[in-house]
Queue: 2 jobs
Job 1
Amino acid sequence: MAFEPVIGLEVHAQLKTKTKIFCGCSTQFGKLPNANTCPVCTGMPGVLPVLNQQAVTFAIKAGLATDCTIAQESRFDRKNYFYPDLPKGYQITQYAAPIAEHGHLDIETEERGQKTIGITRIHMEEDAGKLIHDPIQAKSMVDLNRTGIPLIEIVSEPDIRTAKEAGAYLRKLHAILKYIEVCDGNMEEGSFRCDANISLRPVGQAQFGTRAELKNLNSFKNVEKAINYEIQRQTFCLEEGKPVIQETRLWDPSKNKTTSMRGKEEAHDYRYFPDPDLVPLIVDEQWIQSVKQTMPELPAQKQARFIEQFGLSAYDATLLTASIDLANYFEETIKGLTDIKLAANWTMTTLLGLLNTQGIDITRSPVTATAFSTLLQLLEKGSINANAAKTVFEMMVKSGKEPGVIVKEMGLEQVSNPSELEEIVNKIIQDNPDEADAYRQGKTKLFSFFMGQVMKKTRGKADPKIVTPLIKAKLV
Ligand code: ADP
Ligand code: MG
Ligand code: ZN
């Protein structure tokens, strides 16, 4: 029997507010344990939460950017459970009445082209703290700096069918949250985390099967790997006639497998009820309008503009707008350039190639957009040719020097003086009479031989745009 995977994702994104969601403590990452705490976020008795307005504004912005309907009235509930990183004994979260619902997000899939993934809801909640286990001293410690940091949880419809689609959805969502500047998207620091729900059903069956929930997925690659593993595991279960158990499973990236963590709890286990310390959250039309006014160009709009304004292909435009940092880098690069396609090619192959092999993000590129632009200007003006430009780029990465300085130091200026080049071409034809004759008799493949000789003579610095017509003219 063939099975079809059904996948729904829950993403927790930390909002980039300066202070926590219900108190004035700093949200700064990397502080000494418990430095960012107060009686409110450490759950002392008798304290009262005060909602952070900026957090609400960010949540509205995320809702609008994913085409959600913003609720005029939403509410905060208490989700009750015990864990040492949750001193209050409950998490304040929007459960019954979330701030945003019924959105969607479009992804590109290899198999089926564009596909729309529904967004069930976006709700606001507070983060929990962190336990640090010290196996040497055989003790555990708690750091409450993260307690009370504002989160939005973005819950997708179970519309996803493959690991690749899940990856595409997450990358797109990540890109959007960074574009609208509500989340820094740092996955290593846990600012953007994902749980994946997976079930299988026989192909053709409408009803969903029993799902497992995967936790601890801290990179796009791990999400895809974990989902593929889980599809395989559940397929084996069902083929052997064993039921899939509804449970929470942990992904172990070092072993490339998931293991059972605990049985999945049901909503009623949490005894949700409205938090009596917080009034309902009212968002009026004016608030929504003011957020709309701060909405920047979103990926799809930027992509359309890159096609329209710069004449780029849809493929190039999609790639160059995949992250706001890359798009900004590219727009900075093309200042002062006329050949945008050239800049696009160099950005996508040479620059991204380098970042890929070094495994670094565009924001940490060893070559700044300004320096990259200067290099491409030298190429565009014909001061250096493409080969030399590659050499200069490599030197820029190694030495951090200005492209102009490298060109001078390495003597890479292109030879584009026509009379100088004509003399060289003449000499080469003279020195190679057999090849010249063969060319004249129709062996035009020998063109590259002559070009090669010119490049050899000029140590790769001849301007091919001038040499090409010269060779052709001399060999008729
Ligand atoms: P929780 O996991 O907290 O109980 P929900 O019930 O809201 O939360 O579901 C979480 C996610 O699980 C959603 O993204 C939803 O699309 C997905 N989901 C629900 N049922 C299934 C299923 N049978 N198979 C796969 N995903 C599912
Ligand atoms: Mg869940
Ligand atoms: Zn606090």
Job 2
Amino acid sequence: MNNNYLRLGVNIDHVATIRNARGVIHPDPLKAAQIASQSGADGITAHLREDRRHISDEDIARLIDIDIPLNLEMAPTKEMLDIAVKHKPNACCLVPEKRQEVTTEGGLDLDKNFNLIKSCIEKLKENKIRVSLFIDPNENHIDKAKELNADIVEIHTGTFARTFSKNDSFQKEFKKIQSIANYASDIGLEVHAGHGLSYETTEIIAKISVLKELNIGHFIIGEAVFDGLDCVIKRMKAIINNARE
Ligand code: PXP
């Protein structure tokens, strides 16, 4: 593959969020994953949370058969490790998880959880699953990720995305991400990035040449509502009108 290629991983969690709001089977995250694949996505990301607020165990079992790589996001717990080992996704991205958080608020604390993460990485790699660590842009975490023998680091872009266009601090955050990404790549880690990215912020982050993959969810699913609403309303109107002909 072209060395300059930047993959797009589409996070489909929020398709499941909408489905679960009604406790029914529509909209199906598997269908979203198939559409993503047909539309040029390079991978699918799904986060199986401890509280199963969006993606379910059954979703993971079904998503494993899609024709593009599955990146399973998960907390470093025994329960999640067993699920990963059972299904063997292409990659697992280890993330910190707090029950009360709305989304993954920050990266892993690799100092505090060194031994726990080490044993998770060993187990996943024994099972031929690539391991990614979701981290804040900080050089110490990169060194630790290397020491832990992770394959990939995914840099948390949430602060950059949140501060974008509000003030100039996003430029400082961008420079930090850029320099940390270069450092990680120089010491042999594959570098991904994600969280909170939109069209505008992706345009900037994608310029970091060492990045190999971006993982984007909330914006893509949210924007798909606007891009698809017109089509769905027209189809529903046609059904109503035809029924009255
Ligand atoms: N990468 C990781 C590790 C995440 O936890 C998330 C959110 O689930 C994303 C990327 C995607 O973030 P967003 O949904 O804000 O695009």
